[in-house]
Design a protein that fits this description.
This protein is an alpha/beta fold. The chain has 10 helices and 11 strands. It is globular, with a radius of gyration of 17 Å. It binds D-malate. The site of D-malate has 12 residues, from loops.
């Protein structure tokens, strides 16, 4: 790595300006659930996902495609009136999504992506694809994990992912004889949060239990979507690295 190599974590999009990201490879995360759902849909054969900043924008894109797409998303975690799908990673199965375009509008995740439009490149991460993304950014000099938060407030499950990701990148770089680079204060805080949690997971407490008591998880438990938490807690279950192409504003593998 060059001396200016940096591993950074942003706890909420609103804490950085979009212009500050122009040299960064940004990994956008919304563990519960937008980015987990996007990875699941693409892993199950969706041709692309078009992330949208609002319900209205999603409806407009859907109309412009004459309905030849899935219209997915949520408000307060629930499917939106008139949409074909919600925001559950388990509902985007191959029989539903194969070869389809998914238009997706969520409260935080797809909004966080908008904030990163000026980044050098944008990857989509979640617990399910940590290893694949960590390998993909091995030689990138500036890496930022952008946590989406829940209702514009910091949420633990995204910070846990960020810590796990920074920890994994450091390990991979060390094994490859590469200097991990500067780890910022926020990245260090995330790594410490992750390491403390990981120790309890290794002692038998399921990662899903940590999600259930985090801001995003509490909402999902309340509305009966615990199965989404279980899905999102499966570390490294999917080997894919979705990339958000800034020109076409579409996410593909
Ligand atoms: C979001 O983008 O706010 C989340 O994905 C919300 C949800 O879990 O549906």
């Amino acid at each position: 790595m060059t001396p200016e190599s940096v591993l950074n974590v942003v706890f909420l999009p609103s804490t950085v300006s979009p212009e500050s990201l122009t040299e960064d490879t940004v990994i956008v995360v919304d563990v519960l659930r937008a980015t987990t759902t996007i990875i699941s849909a693409l892993a199950n054969g969706a041709s692309k996902v078009l992330p949208q900043p609002s319900i209205e924008a999603a409806r407009e894109v859907y109309a412009s495609m004459n309905g030849d797409a899935l219209l997915g998303g949520e408000r307060q975690g629930q499917i939106v009136d008139g949409f074909t799908n919600g925001n559950s990673p388990v509902e985007y199965t191959s029989d539903v999504v194969a070869d389809k375009t998914v238009i997706l509008a969520t409260t935080n995740g797809t909004v966080a992506m908008e904030h990163c439009r000026q980044a050098k490149q944008i990857l989509i991460g979640a617990m399910v694809n940590i290893q694949a993304v960590a390998e993909a950014v091995l030689h990138e000099s500036k890496v930022t994990v952008m946590c989406s938060g829940t209702d514009r407030i910091i949420t633990s499950e995204d910070i846990l992912f960020a810590g796990a990701m920074i920890d994994r990148i450091c390990s991979l770089r060390k094994s490859a004889g590469i200097d991990p680079g500067k780890v910022t204060d926020t990245a260090m805080i995330a790594v410490n949060h992750w390491k403390q949690t990981k120790a309890e997971v290794e002692n038998g407490k399921p990662l899903a239990d940590f999600f259930r008591t985090a801001r995003g998880g509490i909402n999902l438990v309340r509305i009966g979507l615990d199965h989404d938490i279980v899905f999102a807690a499966q570390i490294d279950s999917l080997p894919h690295v979705p990339k958000l192409c800034q020109e076409s504003w579409s996410i593909k593998l």
